[in-house]
From TrEMBL:
It holds the Pfam family DUF1801. This is YdeI/OmpD-associated family protein. Gene3D superfamilies: 3.90.1150.200. It comes from the Bacteria. Residues 19-92 form the YdhG-like domain.
């Protein structure tokens, strides 16, 4: 496992009581997880395998914590090992190594279980209304812009126009659509970034 300089800096900036605890946990993680990576997540040192969290450690004012992801919370502190104020508060190294390797195995097993992709049926075509087609044809700039839109943008205009409840609303929407399309604007242009 390569060391991350950000983790070096985190440990160096820790309180005097915390430095030996964090160094010990880091060394232990290196021994137990030789293929893991060090990183900083949520502003705290973490150990990952294939980008998935295995364990993390943190220093607070008066204690440290060590979390092995997937093992659940125990006690009043965030990690499974309570408030760690000295090396003596940690369980035996062999127990921690076993827990880290079990977490690694869990993560790798979860990663190998492939989910079948969800195949969605394509949305049915919305037929082009005659009045909208005629309005587009009457304004060449609008027709050219509409033809250049991706299918999703064309569909948004078609849905908006065909879902009108009254003829008056439909005529207003066709007129507004032609104006916006001639300017190259998609249906929801007001909400687009940039």
């Amino acid at each position: 496992m390569a060391k991350d300089t950000r983790v070096d800096a985190y440990i160096a900036g820790a309180a005097d009581f915390a430095r030996p605890i964090l160094e010990h946990l880091r060394d232990l993680a290196h021994r137990a997880l030789p293929d893991a990576d060090e990183t900083i997540k949520w502003s705290r040192p973490h150990f990952t395998v294939k980008g998935k969290n295995i364990a993390g450690m943190a220093e607070f004012k008066a204690h440290c914590i060590f979390t092995i992801h997937g093992e659940g919370r125990q006690g009043e502190a965030m990690g499974q090992y309570g408030r760690i104020t000295a090396l003596a508060d940690l369980p035996p190294d062999a127990d921690l190594v076993t827990s880290l390797q079990a977490a690694r195995a869990r993560v790798l097993q979860q990663g190998s279980a492939r989910k079948e992709p969800v195949v969605r049926a394509p949305k049915p075509e919305i037929p082009m209304p005659d009045d909208f087609a005629a309005a587009l044809a009457a304004v060449p700039a609008a027709q050219a812009a509409y033809d250049g839109f991706p299918p999703s943008a064309r569909r948004e205009y078609l849905e908006w126009i065909t879902e009108a409840k009254s003829e008056a609303t439909r005529h207003k929407r066709v007129a507004q659509a032609i104006e916006w399309i001639a300017e190259g604007k998609k249906r929801h242009w007001k909400y687009q970034r940039g």
